[in-house]
Amino acid sequence: MPKAEDILNREIARVNLHLPADRPTLKQLLGEKEPRVRLRDGSYHHFRRSELEYLISLLDEGEEERLRIPIVLEISTLYRGYFRVRGRTEVKVIEKILGTYDILDEKIEGLYPRYLLPKIRKALPTTTTYAFITE
């Protein structure tokens, strides 16, 4: 008989089938005729070119090679009421959209209240995605 933890982990994996199998860089996507990514369930997710160009406008030169798309907004069991973003360039983009970016305080990881999710998803509907994780 499976343990409750095993059942939960299987359900989380099932819920996360919408996540990409691989996260290409912004530079790679801008070089494609039809920017898209293959998802874990085998389907494809397409990105709006206008959104990719908006992202490049938020970055300094050369950062498009480090920004992985889609930006993952992690919903965790550990941080109730918050979501997390990992990656220096990814955090920079999110904080610029939220208007909280501080050039003197570049972070590798950011933790934000969940009520800010609609603002981010409105600005970046095709280049962000949710991941549900247990910790």
TrEMBL record:
<dbReference type="Pfam" id="PF01886">
    <property type="entry name" value="DUF61"/>
</dbReference>
<comment type="similarity">
    <text>Belongs to the UPF0216 family.</text>
</comment>
<dbReference type="InterPro" id="IPR002746">
    <property type="entry name" value="UPF0216"/>
</dbReference>
<protein>
    <recommendedName>
        <fullName>UPF0216 protein A3L14_00835</fullName>
    </recommendedName>
</protein>
